[in-house]
Amino acid sequence: MMRIINIAALLFVCLLGAISAQAEDRALVVGVDVYANPNLSPTDGATDDAKAMQKLLIEKFNFAPKSIKILLNEQATAANIVGNFQTWLVNGTRPGDRVFFFYAGHGFQVPDDNGDEEDKMDEVVTPYDIAIASEGGKVVLPNEKTFIRDDKFNDFIAQLSGRRAVLMFDSCHSGTLSRSLGENSKYLPSRYLRLKPSRNIGDGGYSSVPLRGQPRDLATIREDALDGSINGVVVLSAASPYQQAFPIATENNITRGAFSYIFENLIRGNESAKLEDLEKDLKREMKKLADKGQIGQSPTGEFQVPQIDILSKTKISDKPLFAETSPEESYAAAVESALFNPLSTMRVKLDLDKRRYKIGETINYSVDVGEAAHLYILVFSTQNKAFCIFPSAVAGDSINYVMKGKHGFPRENYVTEATEPVGKDVWVALVSKKKLNLGEKEEYTWDEVFKRIGLEELRKAIVGKTRGAGNKQTAQLTADDWQAATVVVETVEK
User: Fold this and answer.
1) Model confidence, pTM
2) Are residues 91 and 63 in the same domain?
3) pLDDT tens digit string along 120-148?
4) Residue 195 bridge partners (DSSP)
5) Domain-ending residue, one of 283, 304, 328
6) Cα dist. 404→172, 369, 391, 479 in Å?
7) What is the secondary structure of 140-163 as a DSSP string?
8) If I label 419, which of 247, 278, 436, 466 is the partner at 20 to 30 A Cα–Cα?
């Protein structure tokens, strides 16, 4: 426990050991092989991809089975996908939690409805209940309720800021209908929404894949649709723009999405691979399939090239999925993801004389702030505990409005020592333009701190800045603007 001994007052900071995962996990896994409309061709291997992702989360990332919802075929309606994304993944998690979304199925394009697309087309995923019609010999999607626009995913991404979120799409990026490769092709058909060759509708039913377009616009979400205001979100895509995504027949003669299959094998080999290395490995392994003639080509003559888009103001390219290198680092990654304000221009830096202390050693640290503000020093630990070590009424150091510049701690009349048990904690220096309701006691729960900082208000402000599915400016981050810096500190035996 953390305690203040008021002799000239000695402050003991307990760096807790016996690490246990602090953050919660939530996953939504979607696979659509067949569709309600019998005119639509199946998406070969999509449900097997979904089941493989469910198993991978449990076996390699320690997701509890009850934390994963899986929607297959008739369960994967547009309403079910959107509803579960909102209630299960967004409303059911808090900043710092791990969130995973996976979709395997067809994709398509529809006319842009809000002017945010350079090519005038929105990219969509096509659930089990997708409705189709014919206009001028081309297949169109007449019912907005039966597909999900990329704008809606932008909206979800904004709401997941501050969580450790991974979204993965194994579907075609071409965005419109195309002729299949033919029944005599040695390749399996790519994952675009298309009609069965024997069941055209209206007076046509096929149209060519556009040579240009911005399917799902994942690569430009950072700069445009989400205003660079997101933290902690990673999006993995089966192919780059203008390319189609293909399934393959595995060694066991099971049809799988090439992207999902390669991803699974890489993660099983090394779940701690850095994101920047994972992307290189995905591209290398996909090229091997292309060189062996195991996957087809887009009409442009290109083979699919997987991509990873990182939507995060804090650097996570040098970290693995979910930003954790081991189970004991999980809650450290959770705090770092949650306690960063991507909308703030405030600056703060936390420095300790070292990152590892022996029991009994004095901990000296400093905080550099970019402007006059209220300063709070917090220590986040396991068991849902967070301690406020500055300001501290117990230690007689309660005046926490500080001027611009560097401030050394601990101040007069007390010291900070590392005590048993051994382990890691996350130290946080937080500055706020508004005085927060912190420091009147030593120990808090994580949720108490998150509430007092106003993370829910921050989420609303981020969503209000985005251009998504019906987003409006719903909140402003005003006088309670804040920013935080984090450092992981470890206590070891003497």
Assistant:
1) 0.84
2) yes
3) 566 778 899 989 887 776 778 889 899 88
4) 40
5) 328
6) 52, 5, 17, 18
7) E---GGGSEEHHHHHHHHHHTTTS
8) 436
